[in-house]
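Section 4.2 – Deliverable D4.2 (structural model, holo form)

The reporting period included a commitment to supply a predicted holo structure for the target in complex with iron/sulfur cluster. Inputs used:
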Amino acid sequence: MAYVISDACVSCGACESACPTGAISQGDSQFVIDANTCIDCGSCADTCPTGAISQG
Ligand code: SF4
Ligand code: SF4
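Output (structure tokens):
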């Protein structure tokens, strides 16, 4: 199961640079995770200041 970003995302961009596989990018209204690229390392969830990222 890949990690997912909820609507608590404030588009700060911290998770994007924390991701080792480049799975995170800026979407239309918030950042999004590509489930096919995510390796479930959890780095993004540890980095997010709003707790918007969790394992889906
Ligand atoms: S869990 Fe790891 S690989 Fe998946 S999006 Fe977050 S930082 Fe990237
Ligand atoms: S670190 Fe959290 S608030 Fe910042 S862009 Fe990523 S999901 Fe959104």
